[in-house]
């Protein structure tokens, strides 16, 4: 009898776990009268009053919020666990850390609120695949740092995007206008694809969009041509698409492209497919 009662109790608990879990899901809402943001739970109950100018989604139990040009973080009870004292926070605490901006300098901040580094960088990007791009001076070369702030990769490049699928786009200034061509390196700093493209996007689904058009053409007129390369640098889809300043990107095997004023989707062979 006791065993039966225990089994019934376990079944009841299991039935209510999804409900309890669902009730912890918070979604942002806006107060139309004040244009401020807050959070409600799944049943519509206000958990965090609408008092912020900006809110992010919750990641790793925290949401980034801003009020009167100051930024910090709250937990799911609305408690401000990271004081609103920063100019900006870059990232979503996926790696337990973010890049913070304070008085025009960047540093690393742990989700506990502890500053891992002081604000010492002139430039920084959010963490991606465990690494962030930083510069110690505006005219200096980019460095890659880990979550502890240790430099793991020094480069001879002046610009870099964030790592994606083990590769990162990099560029070196080649003329007085600060314009350089782009290529890709791996996490060891090995140059996999030499800088020869005017514009590139990060790798996604194994392919990266690249362009070789002139910087001074009217990009929005369709003069810039985009195509796709693989991780060996081979052009797998010819440079023909007219997506303007920003290249197309593959997501779940499809990319939205523009050609002759018509937008449509293609697969990774370049064949047109349904959305």
From TrEMBL:
InterPro entries: WG_beta_rep (IPR032774). It comes from the Bacteria. Pfam families: WG_beta_rep. This is WG repeat-containing protein. The lineage of its organism: Bacteria, Pseudomonadati, Bacteroidota, Sphingobacteriia, Sphingobacteriales.
